[in-house]
Amino acid sequence: MILTLTVNPAIDRNVTADRLVFEDRAYILAESHSAGGRGINASCVIHSFGGETAAIVPSGGSFGARFEQLLSGCGFPVHVVRIENEVRRNLTITDKTGLTVKLNELGPPMSGAELRAIEAKVLERLAGADWLLICGSLPPTVPPGFYSGLLAMAREHGVRTLLDTDGNPLREGVEAGPTVVAPNQQEAERLLNRALITRTHFIEAVDRIRQMGPEAVVLSLGSRGAIGAAQDVMLEAVTPRIEAVCPIGAGDALVAAFAWAMHRKDDFADALRWGVAAGTASAKLPGMTFASLAQTREIYERVEIRQIR
Questions:
Q1: What is the CATH number of the domain that holds 116?
Q2: Number of structural domains in the chain
Q3: What one-character-per-residue DSSP string does 89-157 give?
Q4: Taking CA atoms, which of 51, 202, 221, 253 is between 20 and 30 Å from 195?
Q5: Closest CA to 245 of 62, 23, 97
Q6: How far apart are CA 65 and CA 87, in angstroms?
Q7: 29 inside domain
């Protein structure tokens, strides 16, 4: 089973507009609400692919009740940890050309007791897990080293881990030695404090991140695909040309499909290929929509894997 943790989930308001422009009006064409957060998104993709998954989330307040209602039909187990403060709300606006603006709230304050309850819930569920995916941001009051303790806990119980976060939690988390760390280009730039522009930069970045502690790195590069390194192998996954409609959420699909493929077959190159295929296929869809297994398989057949070394 693939267990996901989302410490900072949200109610996502997804708006499609005819255009995004300054100092002129635009019109809303469609609107939807969904339970969001990287771990929730990952579990949704894994479940839709036929994988076994469960999600751990904190929830509180009146927005928390709405968040749980939105999750009620997800089809996989969701283990809720009660917190006092409100679940955050995020806003994503996408126009017909794929131009996207994403505005996220920071997230609710959490007490030490609430964080210990999250840790206890993770420990309780590790017994049935092969992978733990730790996904997304931390609310401002949560220490950036919170993820490091969870990574150590999972390692002690023989559960492989994937870390998908940003900023200080990523910086401290990579040093805790996760099985896989999966930053996108912007997250890697912040981690390394340098711009990544060329293919040589990307390869150097993967090497540097591996030296920081994780066993493997998957650097997602949007329309350029991804570069992955594990053990003594570095690979590049090259995407076919597509017409992207909404890239928001494509990175979550990549992480989910990668973990699903690793859990199923334990082949790093094939998992990288599936991950890039899922991200690419999802970017072709409007709004926060994730590609099905059939849609992903069609792209998978066209993803090229090249060995860098």
A1: 3.40.1190.20
A2: 1
A3: EEEEEEETT--EEEEE-------HHHHHHHHHHHHHHHTT-SEEEEES---TTS-TTHHHHHHHHHHHT
A4: 253
A5: 97
A6: 9
A7: no
299 contacts 240 by C-beta, under 8 angstroms: yes
| Tens digits of residue pLDDT in 111-130 | 999 999 999 999 999 998 99
Question: Which residues, 6 or more positions from 238, have their beta carbon under 8 angstroms from its beta carbon?
Answer: 224, 225, 303, 304, 305, 306
State the first-to-last Cα distance of the chain, in angstroms, to the nearest integer: 32
Residue whose token pair is 């912007």: 186
Quote the tokens at residue 168.
């200080």
Task: Share the mean pLDDT of the chain.
Answer: 94
Residue 78 domain-assigned?
A: yes
The candidate with the shortest Cα–Cα distance to 163, out of 141, 193, 194, 137, is 137
Is this structure's pTM higher than 0.85? yes
Task: Produce one character per residue of 187-225: b if its CB has 16 or more CB atoms within 10 Å, e if not.
Answer: bbbebbeeebeeeebbbebbeebbebebebbbbbbbebb
Residue 274 to residues 43, 160, 237, 260, 296, Cα–Cα distance (Å): 16, 19, 10, 9, 8
The token pair that represents 92 in the structure block:
């994503």
Q: Is residue 254 domain-resident?
A: yes
In whole angstroms, give the CA distance from residue 133 to residue 161. Answer: 6
Among 73, 38, 50, 53, CA closest to 294: 50
Q: Could you give the CA distance from residue 119 to residue 117 in angstroms, rounded to a whole number?
A: 5
Cβ neighbours of residue 301 under 8 Å, at least 6 residues apart?
none
3-state helix vs strand vs coil in the chain, percent to 5: 40, 25, 35
Nearest to 39 by CA among 63, 14, 9: 9
Two structure tokens written together for 69: 């209602």
Residue 165 lies in a domain: yes
Residue range of the domain that includes 43: 2-23+34-307
Distance CA 99, CA 300 (A): 25
Say if residues 145 and 172 touch (Cβ distance below 8 Å): yes
